[in-house]
């Protein structure tokens, strides 16, 4: 008989999450403290009163443009107030928001605009040249509106509407344009999968509202907390952070991109209490030859998006005296599913913690996914809770494989100890994790195959202390072709976002495959391990 896990219930009792639209949480926070700083961006400070007024202006303006419930709005910006305000405003009129990576090239922008059937895009002014190139190469029947940051139309896009103009001409008063239920779609972030191109992940109002409350409750955040947010808002981790700190009534300090020294300065200047990072940043902090005394206001340094190595976490904690914790989640779970106990004495650095409130987990056998395993035994982690996605956009078969009877099959391998702590030990999925970002090998392989000299290819992640994994491609050249590794790397990387770029190319005679044609990546990884061992 399978031994049942009961310990998490001692730490995470069930909570009653309200079935309300996503914008409801920030409106409640604004009622409690309208003059409290909500968002700090460079020298701009927006209070909760101002945030809600601007959300109302954008919502009313979008509605006046004819944008209706169920239409998709892509957000193509860095971490800026306009992103967060438009995300919430769009949701308040029933639109679906699809965050877009600002590092995307034409190929990736084209795919997401087309696949999401976006009717509107909000684009940062600096990214306009990419959109102009995309629009010059392809037409998008669904795309009706282009909004741009700033206060004047960009050159070459005369019909684009400056967001500042939309705000100025719209009413700051709340108007209820449509009925919204918890089951209505709110967000469509694109999650890289093992089968190739990214998939839209359908997240509802109830998913994200519940996860914001799960996050703020588990981390014990309150209106006096200040979060430094440099993790990208197009990533589900960033979506959760910006929404959660508005939900709890706290203050968020925005950075458009990470810079270690600037992050330390901002922590000191704004008395930051929560510092959210990914493992490469934890490593950078642990190894930084600088005084980390500027972090003294911090309560926690939180790591997510990829497994956190124990050594740098321990060194950083010893160096600063600040509690380092890691959590666990994924796009399909809005994202948070696990976090550490609130009591620092109960934190275990090598664990991702316990399921958050209203979240259940099991460990199933890897072969069938149908047999629950006992405590301590490694298997596939499956999760059920209010934060679990509705499914994948336009991908019913993939949805059926991943969601079974309400349980999300994560593809991650791990176990639960007798105290209820969860440990992630490996990935069943073939995803490569580069600096916390997921990269699908199949997408890179498809691109490599476009090179005229390439006959076949396979891509794996190879271990790297700073990045987590580097992207390595094994390539079989066509007969008579003499391309060099650098030529192929240059070809591929010119069409990929920075985090997807290929770092190493090795030529081989044949790609190992099963009889059915599936790439035997484990063989390539063993080959890589053997090579590394020989070099030591």
TrEMBL record:
<feature type="domain" description="AMP-binding enzyme C-terminal">
    <location>
        <begin position="443"/>
        <end position="518"/>
    </location>
</feature>
<protein>
    <submittedName>
        <fullName>Long-chain-fatty-acid--CoA ligase</fullName>
    </submittedName>
</protein>
<dbReference type="Pfam" id="PF13193">
    <property type="entry name" value="AMP-binding_C"/>
</dbReference>
<dbReference type="GO" id="GO:0016405">
    <property type="term" value="F:CoA-ligase activity"/>
</dbReference>
<dbReference type="InterPro" id="IPR020845">
    <property type="entry name" value="AMP-binding_CS"/>
</dbReference>
<dbReference type="InterPro" id="IPR045851">
    <property type="entry name" value="AMP-bd_C_sf"/>
</dbReference>
<dbReference type="Pfam" id="PF00501">
    <property type="entry name" value="AMP-binding"/>
</dbReference>
<keyword id="KW-0067">ATP-binding</keyword>
<keyword id="KW-0436">Ligase</keyword>
<feature type="domain" description="AMP-dependent synthetase/ligase">
    <location>
        <begin position="29"/>
        <end position="393"/>
    </location>
</feature>
<keyword id="KW-0547">Nucleotide-binding</keyword>
<comment type="similarity">
    <text>Belongs to the ATP-dependent AMP-binding enzyme family.</text>
</comment>
<dbReference type="GO" id="GO:0005524">
    <property type="term" value="F:ATP binding"/>
</dbReference>
<dbReference type="InterPro" id="IPR000873">
    <property type="entry name" value="AMP-dep_synth/lig_dom"/>
</dbReference>
<dbReference type="InterPro" id="IPR025110">
    <property type="entry name" value="AMP-bd_C"/>
</dbReference>
């Amino acid at each position: 008989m399978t031994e049942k896990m009961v310990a998490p219930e001692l730490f995470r009792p069930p909570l009653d999450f309200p079935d309300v639209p996503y914008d409801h949480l920030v409106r409640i926070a604004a009622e409690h403290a309208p003059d409290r700083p909500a968002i700090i961006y460079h020298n701009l400070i927006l209070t909760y009163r101002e945030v809600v007024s601007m959300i109302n202006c954008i919502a009313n303006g979008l509605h006046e443009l004819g944008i209706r419930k169920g239409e998709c709005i892509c957000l193509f910006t860095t971490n800026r107030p306009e992103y967060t305000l438009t995300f919430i405003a769009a949701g308040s009129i029933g639109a679906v928001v699809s965050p877009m990576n600002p590092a995307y090239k034409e190929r990736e922008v084209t795919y997401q605009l087309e696949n999401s059937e976006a009717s509107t895009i909000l684009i940062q002014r600096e990214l306009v040249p990419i959109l102009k190139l995309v629009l010059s190469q392809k037409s998008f029947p669904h795309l009706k509106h282009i909004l741009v940051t700033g206060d004047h139309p960009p050159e070459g896009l005369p019909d684009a509407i400056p967001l500042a103009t939309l705000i100025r001409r719209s009413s700051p008063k709340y108007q209820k344009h449509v009925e919204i239920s918890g089951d209505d779609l709110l967000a469509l972030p694109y999650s890289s999968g093992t089968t190739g191109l990214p998939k839209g992940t359908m997240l509802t109002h109830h998913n994200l509202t519940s996860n914001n409350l799960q996050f703020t409750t588990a981390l014990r955040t309150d209106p006096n907390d200040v979060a430094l947010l440099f993790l990208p808002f197009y990533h589900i981790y960033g979506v959760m952070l910006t929404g959660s700190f508005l939900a709890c009534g706290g203050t968020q300090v925005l950075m458009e991109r990470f810079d270690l020294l600037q992050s330390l300065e901002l922590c000191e200047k704004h008395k930051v209490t929560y510092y959210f990072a990914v493992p490469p940043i934890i490593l950078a902090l642990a190894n930084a030859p600088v005084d980390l005394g500027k972090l003294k206001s911090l309560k926690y340094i939180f790591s997510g998006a990829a497994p956190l190595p124990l050594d740098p976490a321990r060194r950083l904690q010893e160096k600063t005296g600040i509690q380092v914790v890691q959590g666990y989640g994924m796009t399909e779970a809005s994202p948070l599913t696990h976090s550490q106990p609130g009591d620092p004495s109960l934190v275990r650095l090598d664990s991702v913690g316990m399921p958050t409130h209203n979240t259940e987990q099991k460990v199933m056998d890897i072969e069938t996914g149908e047999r629950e395993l006992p405590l301590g035994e490694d298997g596939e982690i499956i999760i059920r809770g209010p934060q679990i996605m509705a499914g994948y956009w336009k991908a019913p078969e993939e949805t059926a494989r991943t969601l079974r009877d309400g349980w999300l099959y994560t593809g991650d391998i791990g176990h639960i100890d007798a105290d209820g702590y969860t440990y992630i030990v490996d990935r069943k999925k073939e995803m490569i994790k580069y600096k916390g970002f997921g990269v699908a090998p199949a997408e890179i392989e498809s691109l490599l195959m476009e090179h005229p000299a390439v006959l076949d290819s396979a891509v794996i992640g190879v271990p790297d202390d700073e990045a987590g994994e580097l992207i390595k491609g094994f390539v079989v050249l066509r007969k008579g072709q003499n391309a060099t590794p650098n030529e192929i790397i240059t070809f591929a990387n010119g069409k990929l976002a920075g985090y997807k770029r290929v770092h190493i190319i090795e030529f081989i005679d044949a790609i190992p495959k099963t009889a059915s044609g599936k790439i035997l990546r484990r063989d390539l990884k063993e080959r890589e391990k053997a090579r590394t061992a020989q070099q030591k």
